[in-house]
């Protein structure tokens, strides 16, 4: 870190409160200031180059230097820099994007609705669901079931859906009407000898017990990520989504697929819902929709959701919900061009092919003394680190080993993120096999460098 009083680092410490950061520790360590990007790489102000193994925040599908997105933004900015969709107004990029998203959806869908972030989209999903229940004359049907370790964002309602302690502690969350059911993490939570199918059946039973205890007539929806992302890249065990959906159908509970990470190719299919046979009523999209070059998110809803909402808006006189920047024309133009690039360059196929290479290379590390579990699908993976493989015990405090290895990885030229003791990998979808090799080699060196600290006796 540049210690001069007027350095960017010093000014960052002086003026900037960071997202998801220990603000006191930051005053000592300072920031990593990223200056530019090129393909799967980013460079800091000191000129150090890194493989961005998280695609920023699980989001930059097409890499960090895609000229066509810059041109799409510039064209739209010159033509119509802002408009909105309030009061029946529309503009071409939004009409095109709505049509594209509804047509791309893997299940029959009816309408797209636009927001600016994953959190806003999930808050909007909750409001749509409540509005629908009232429209149907079922005002008691307001509870939404999410999952422990699920991640759905940070606004008040979305953070309540999120099932992670750091998003609730000292924020006085969750709000009422949000329930959390079990995490589908077989490696961590299965009973000894319990198969994946048996574990999935037990989780579906847990869900049904929760529904019955609360009263099925009070449960409006279930929300889940096809693969849990920020909760540690938890890949659902065999049979999980099938068994969960059987419970939801039995009690007429809506299903919201939060595709904010999985959407647009991450798992080797266009949507995570396809990879896991999920048939959602609402799909929540963001991040890779525009490769995060500009903020935009969307909900795609089916007629079961749209029709009652339309009736209720007619009764009241309007659907009283909308964001100034929702469906911004420049962001919509960038999203359209980004989706075009994903299709043209078959980045979904690349996620499948190069993803298989990433998964195979990481699985070779399963025998490393610090590796507890390797999991993932396509171009999303996590390696869970343990101090003791048999007991799955962490090294001292939970997350200490994750932070140690993540720091070493950064020194070795790879930016990743540790979710507790799980090191996540979610690189841009354009990554090549050679770049995956460089990434995994650096990870292996980092694990080896950590080992003497974790096991001083060897
Ligand atoms: C699955 C999922 N849903 C929602 C969100 C929230 O999105 P945002 O940070 O844009 O509010 C995230 C962000 O990481 C996410 O991973």
Automatic annotation (TrEMBL):
Its cofactor is pyridoxal 5'-phosphate. PROSITE patterns: AA_TRANSFER_CLASS_3. GO terms for biological process: biotin biosynthetic process; gamma-aminobutyric acid metabolic process. GO terms for molecular function: adenosylmethionine-8-amino-7-oxononanoate transaminase activity; pyridoxal phosphate binding. InterPro entries: Aminotrans_3, Aminotrans_3_PPA_site, PyrdxlP-dep_Trfase, PyrdxlP-dep_Trfase_major, PyrdxlP-dep_Trfase_small. Keywords: Aminotransferase, Pyridoxal phosphate, Transferase. Belongs to the class-III pyridoxal-phosphate-dependent aminotransferase family. This is Aminotransferase. It comes from Rhizobium loti (Mesorhizobium loti). The lineage of its organism: Bacteria, Pseudomonadati, Pseudomonadota, Alphaproteobacteria, Hyphomicrobiales.
């Amino acid at each position: 870190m540049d210690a001069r009083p007027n350095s960017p680092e010093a000014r960052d410490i002086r003026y900037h409160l960071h997202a998801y950061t220990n603000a006191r520790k930051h005053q000592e360590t300072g920031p990593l200031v990223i200056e530019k990007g090129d393909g799967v790489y980013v460079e800091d102000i000191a000129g150090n180059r890194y493989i961005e193994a998280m695609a920023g925040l699980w989001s930059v599908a097409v890499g960090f230097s895609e000229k066509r997105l810059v041109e799409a933004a510039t064209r739209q900015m010159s033509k119509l820099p802002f408009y909105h969709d309030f009061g029946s107004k529309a503009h071409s990029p939004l009409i095109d994007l709505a049509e594209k998203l509804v047509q791309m959806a893997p299940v029959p869908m009816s309408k797209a609705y636009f927001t600016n972030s994953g959190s806003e989209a999930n808050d909007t999903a909750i409001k749509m669901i409540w509005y629908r229940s009232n429209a149907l004359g079922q005002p008691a049907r307001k509870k939404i079931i999410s999952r422990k370790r699920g991640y759905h964002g940070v606004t008040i309602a979305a953070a309540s859906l999120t099932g992670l302690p750091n998003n609730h502690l000292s924020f006085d969350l969750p709000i009422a009407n949000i329930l959390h059911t079990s995490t589908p993490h077989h490696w961590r939570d299965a009973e000894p000898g319990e198969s994946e199918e048996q574990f999935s059946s037990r989780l579906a039973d847990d869900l049904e017990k929760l529904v019955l205890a609360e009263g099925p007539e009070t449960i409006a929806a279930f929300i889940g990520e096809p693969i849990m992302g920020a909760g540690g890249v938890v890949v659902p065990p065999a049979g999980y989504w099938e068994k969960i959906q059987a419970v939801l159908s039995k009690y007429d509970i809506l299903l919201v697929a939060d595709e904010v990470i999985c959407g647009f190719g991450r798992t080797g299919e266009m949507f995570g819902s396809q990879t896991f046979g999920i048939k959602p009523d609402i799909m929540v999209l963001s991040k890779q929709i525009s490769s995060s070059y500009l903020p935009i998110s969307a909900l795609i809803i089916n007629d079961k959701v749209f029709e009652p909402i339309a009736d209720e808006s007619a009764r009241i006189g309007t659907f009283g919900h909308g964001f100034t920047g929702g469906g911004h024309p420049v962001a919509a133009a960038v999203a359209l061009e980004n989706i075009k690039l994903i299709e043209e360059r078959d980045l979904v196929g690349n996620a499948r092919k190069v993803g298989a290479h990433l998964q195979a290379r990481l699985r070779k590390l399963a025998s490393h003394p610090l590796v507890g579990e390797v999991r993932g699908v396509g171009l999303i993976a996590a390696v869970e680190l343990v101090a003791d493989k048999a007991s799955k015990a962490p090294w001292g405090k939970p997350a200490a080993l994750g932070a140690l290895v993540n720091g070493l990885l950064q020194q070795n030229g790879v930016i990743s993120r540790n979710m507790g003791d799980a090191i996540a990998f979610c690189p841009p979808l354009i990554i090549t096999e050679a770049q995956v090799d460089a990434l995994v080699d650096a990870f292996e060196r980092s694990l080896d460098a950590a080992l003497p600290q974790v096991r001083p006796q060897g």
